[in-house]
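Hi Y.,

Following your request, here is the sequence exactly as I used it, all 313 residues.
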Amino acid sequence: MRILVMGTGGLGGYFGGLLARAGEDVTFVARGAHLLALSEHGLRVHGVHGDFALPVRAVPRPADAGPVDMVLFCVKTYDVESAGEAIRPAVGPETAVLCLQNGVETEDRLISMLGRAPVLGGVTYVAAAIEAPGVIRHIGLSGEIICGEMDGSITPRVQAINAVLSGAGIKSRVTGEIVRTMWEKFVFICAAGGMTALTRVTLGEVWDHEESREMFRGLMEETAAVGRARGTRLEGVVERQMAFVGDLVRGTGYHTRASLYNDLASGKRMELDALCGAVVRMGRESGVPTPLSFAVVAALRPHERRAAAGASR
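Below is the corresponding structure, written out as tokens. Let me know if you'd prefer a different format.
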């Protein structure tokens, strides 16, 4: 399968690397020192499931790849419009665009740009980051990908994509309820991102203290309430996600920090408006109070604005 990885950060580099190692025809879009390292030295992946290295094709523009069968869309949420415009030359009549962003709004934003036909919903639970130019570090979590058609149908193309992912050693499955699945992750990631960025500690340290654990639950309850108000079935999601996090921190995930924290700590622009900021905005639109999410946004906004201003220089 011809695959374009749009956004070769931790997520795109990790999954794209697994697909390339399995023999798929993968092209990585990158820039700067990362692009140079990939082109000259190949991709190296270090992680909890072992290390590997391989030569890869890396380009600065999606147009350099030509039409592909699938775009693995892995850019940050604040780059969706510019990246969506950039991938147009690579999106042919049969191309699938599989979104793996945090948040629940990327798919609709891409549909407004590319039309409904190419866009697939996707969810993943993985912690990975660029360790150095050309080097990806898989930090933890299972690396599962859940994908589905936005209308809930089970189509041959989504089954074919699932087979390719599975063939690369990626734990994957197809769902007929991708919107609900996206919201279930959203409930978790808003709390995990908000609390690790707000407290500057690991998920396990948040979990160790009753007060911070209760705030974590409160953030999930707010997000779930907003999702239900917008028509998504989310019965029991908070209890399921609380059990998931408990198992995670008792296992290998005690030292996990969400990407919102990682971007804050490195002085990068944060996806604040796609996470807790989106909960506040959608809560206002739906008449659902979101005081804990608002507190996270209020505390992190100065950092987000400072990083965004630095990135624009």
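The mean pLDDT is 94.

Thanks again,
Q.
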